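Thought: the user wants the 3D structure for the chain below. I'll pass the sequence to the structure tool as-is, report back what it returns, then summarize two notable features.
Action: structure_tool
Action Input:
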Amino acid sequence: MIRVMVVDDQALVRRGFALVLDNEPDIEVVAEAGTGIEAINAAREHQPDIILMDIRMPEMDGLEATAQILTTNGATSRVIILTTFDPDEYVFRALQAGASGFVLKDIPPESLVEAVRTVGDGGAMLAPGITKRLISEFAQKLGTGRNLAERLERLTSREREVLTAIAAGKSNAEIAEALFIGPATVKTHVSSLLSKLGLRDRAQAVVFAYECGLANVGERDVGF
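Observation:
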């Protein structure tokens, strides 16, 4: 059972997401919150597996709430950012803070359920169609700093290939096929590169790949 908390300052939107998810046999909505402060307190009390987090809320925005929740000792929740903006700099910053992806608020119900299951299974959800433009506008401004380059040097050539494939939105199965290795080997490489780079998950791996220049914005949208 995937335990979910929904955070949005609009009660109707919040309830709508909760009703969609509660109808699934493997998903349970354990809490709702209307502000960032409420979200922090509810996350501490309920320890949800997944948090759907709106960005713009009164008292404390979703970005600050995400950072505080994910830096709490023992925090195991994973955050999916909800946004109506395309693109939105705050989304990129939320990914840097440790969020596991983002989706647009007008996402179809079946896609919302898929996103929750994907992140609940340890993956990342970067909505196709907006990730490329978001990365193009904001990640490219950061350039390649010395720290990023030094961290990249920690990787083997194979791990760099896997990281590049992750940034292109490829699944483990697709990476295995492209590199002529087994899926289990891909998982090993992914775990290793995340550990070496000090990254939380595949979403942060995508951000890192663009920040350090290993991946470049092209014609293809990226997503998981």
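Final Answer: Structure generated. The first strand starts at residue 2 and ends at 7. The chain has two domains: 2-127, 137-211.
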